[in-house]
């Protein structure tokens, strides 16, 4: 993490949820909790919104846990904790979902690798001349792109064996049982 984005989420006077990027901060290494909380506190002071923070959501990095601890301690000293701080640290659900999905993908990694190799091979082949029938590639850090790739490969599951029959260099074809 070289940069940190601070976003605000609130309910306006018409009971509509609002959100916006409040700050985009460069945090040079090392990325320890004290450096992170220092950047957050500077921002809160600049905007004079120390008393308006009710919850903080971050991913599960250990430096973030340390930063939250220090930020919560600061808020306790200032007597600015909503619900006595019980809701102060909210884990990032998207990060948790990503970790769960990545663990599941790891369980079938051999099959995912074969499908990824197949998709990449077909995309580099003459089949790329048919752009309207495009295979989806995967981005390894985003589980939903792996899901899209697998879902798309299922759509083309009958095509892979036919492709293997016509191309002697294509060796990554899954059998129907897989």
UniProtKB/TrEMBL annotation:
Superkingdom of source: Eukaryota
Record carries keyword Heme: no
Matching SUPFAM superfamilies: Ribonuclease H-like (SSF53098)
Keywords per UniProt: Metal-binding, Nucleus, Zinc, Zinc-finger
Principal location class: nucleus
Compartments, as annotated in UniProt: Nucleus
TM ranges: none
InterPro entries: RNaseH-like_sf (IPR012337), ZnF_BED_domain_contain (IPR052035)
Gene Ontology MF: a single term: zinc ion binding
GO terms for cellular component: nucleus
Record-given protein name: Zinc finger BED domain-containing protein RICESLEEPER 2-like
Species in which this protein is naturally found: Sesamum radiatum
